Amino acid sequence: MSVKELKFDNFITQIIDEHNVSGRFGGRVHTRFPPEPNGYLHIGHAKALIADFGIAEQYGGLTNLRYDDTNPVKEDVEFVDAIKEDIRWLGFDWGDREYYASDYFDQLYEMALQMIRQGKAYVDELSPDELREYRGTLTEPGKNSPWRDRPVEESLALFERMRAGEFPDGSKTLRARIDMASPNINLRDPVMYRILHTPHHRTGDKWCIYPMYDWAHGQSDSLEGITHSMCSLEYENHRPLYDWFIEQLGIFHPQQIEFARLNITHTVMSKRKLRLIVEQGFVDGWTDPRMPTLAGMRRRGYPPEAILEFIETVGLAKNDSFVDIELLEHIVRDDLNINSKRRMAVLRPLKLIIDNYPEGQTETFEVKDFPQDPESSGSRGVPFGRELWIEQDDFMEVPVPKYHRLVPGGEVRLMNAYFVRATAVEKDAEGNLLAVHCTYDPDSRGGNPADGRKVKGTIHWVAAETALDAELHLYEQLFPDAYPEDLPEGEVFTDHVNRDSLVVLPDAKLEPSLAGAAPGEVYQFVRNGYFTPDSASAAGDKPVWLRTIGLVDTWAKMQK
Fold first, then answer.
1. Residue 296 CA to its chain's centroid (Å)
2. pLDDT 10s digits, 374-404
């Protein structure tokens, strides 16, 4: 699926259609995607990203990229750059509309002064703990701060001194004066500015007071002429505050619209929790292929088209729910099944020696890249010789019932090559299997013997002389539990991280046509799954290949 093929038909498009009929925004659709640069985007952000860009494009509108960089403590240029890369990977472009909340710090400050002059804001001196105490609860009203009725001129003077850096962190805040008894707790005199003596990644040391999200968000939308400000459902109770600020200032009024966030089984979506996973060393950084980040999925070989299709399939709704991760894997697998060339690779190699094959002789088999597609013309030459590598699991000295691969005295088909029959084994002094000896039938070239006999087993192989050495990484779910945040009392989610979620196979053997494969190119290793070269493996080292996904389609089985 491409960006142009995305189609949304939901309650959000219905709202936009109503606005277009009423003429509220003059037929304009202008959205924004406002990530905070304090981490990498994950699959949950992809839902918002695709909705913001996709719906605007559907209506011939525009989308701004605006970084919500109002908290300098954990924000970094690394995350700014990573977000851009993720957006482009999914096929979207913000043109020349790259903005930052920090672009508006001067204007937001002037707006705050206006609010103070109107008697709608005041400088407060409650400590953070006292602020929480005075705020009340969902069932009990809050109580007024002792500084709530501070004179306007005094608040103006103190706010200017806050900006000048005269006060320490946490000593003062600027709060909106609304209603401490409001049933909506977000309207109980919310904090607009706090003191943070921390350099900002763009403004440096210019500011030591920083706007809160609820103060910066709506005004930034207004300044940019945003028409439809889409956000997750958790901000539904913030919409009255969004509207209140804009109404008090008398500025252009966008429409905030909320939709359910994306929750997926077997993972966590909190950026704070993902940061903990990274910082505590459960994974190798934000781009680890086990992470639900878009960078991790890209590195693992997930096609961006599959992400688009997944989000369109899930859709935009008003109710929170969980989506089975198997659905995402099913869509990824379907895409790769159509578009990935086939190759042979042996994950856990065992030597196979064909005793009656002429020593020194080699030959080449022409093998189709897409054997499942009769119309496909792509193929490559696969070398064959006397010594081959096969999977350890494809030979068993004492076979279990219904085992149809190679056994002593038994015959199998070597994929695209010959029939072979096992005749003997080599072992070391400890009894470990070193090699299997066999004979081949020269009349079975191509896997079809002249006498028409059949075998039940077909195994893949790689010629030993021309094999490429590689290290393979196989992945399991980072969280075996479907709902890792649904925990018994006293447990934390990191207690349930699967410490065996990465399996490293250091001695894999690949067919030589895979030399020079680039990261992002995904191949099906027949019988073993889909793999891509690792973009993070060091040049000159043994190449590392990552398993994108296995062949077993759990989702398809679940639907039967």
1. 6
2. 777 789 999 999 999 999 999 999 999 989 9
Q: What is the largest CA-CA distance in the chain?
A: 103
By the 8 A CB rule, do 301 and 518 touch? no
Strands 345-346 and 502-510: antiparallel
Distance in angstroms (rounded) separating the CA atoms of residues 307 and 443: 47
Residue keyed to tokens 């691969």: 405
Q: What is the mean pLDDT of the segment spanning 311-319?
A: 90
Helix 105-117 vs helix 213-224: angle between axes, to the nearest 10 degrees? Answer: 110
- The C-alpha atoms of residue 416 and residue 366 are separated, in whole angstroms, by 8
Q: Count of alpha carbons within 13 Å of 131, Cβ hemisphere only? A: 19
Nearest Cα to Cα of residue 291 among 500, 473, 501, 87: 501
The stretch 27-41 carries a mean pLDDT of: 95
CA distances from 126 to 131, 135, 170, 206, 442 (A): 6, 11, 9, 25, 89
Q: ∠ at Cα 213 (211, 218), nearest 5°? A: 100
Residues 6+ apart with CB under 8 A from 320: 233, 260, 261, 263
User: Which alpha helices (H) appear in 324-402, and where do they start and end?
Assistant: 325-339
Q: How many Å from the N-terminal Cα to the C-terminal Cα in the chain?
A: 25
Q: State how beta strands 387-391 and 379-384 pair.
A: unpaired
Residue (of 482, 516, 511, 248) closest to 379 by Cα position: 511
E-strand stretches of 333-416? 341-343, 345-346, 349-354, 363-368, 379-384, 387-391, 411-414
Burial of 234 (0-12, 13-18, 19+ CB in 10 A): exposed
* Amino acid at position 95, single letter: G
Residue 422: pLDDT band by 50, 70, 90 thresholds? very high
pLDDT at residue 557 in the model:
57
Which is it for strands 121-124 and 349-354: parallel, antiparallel or unpaired? unpaired
Residue-level pLDDT at 486: 85
**Contact indicator for 10, 316 with CB cutoff of 8 Å:** yes
Question: For the chain, which domains are there?
Answer: 3-264 (3.40.50.620), 345-467 (2.40.240.10), 470-560 (2.40.240.10)
Alpha helices in 124-238 (DSSP H): 128-135, 152-163, 213-224
What rounded mean pLDDT belongs to the chain?
Answer: 93
**321 near 263, Cβ under 8 Å?**
yes
Which has the closest alpha carbon to 127: 154, 147, 155? 147
54: exposed, middle or buried (Cβ count in 10 Å: 0-12, 13-18, 19+): buried
Please give the average per-residue pLDDT across 204-225, as a whole number.
96
Over residues 191-195, mean pLDDT: 98
The one-letter amino acid code at 138 reads L
Cα–Cα distances in angstroms (integers) from residue 245 to residues 36, 143, 189, 211, 252, in the given order: 21, 21, 12, 13, 11
Please identify every residue annotated as catalytic: 36, 261, 271
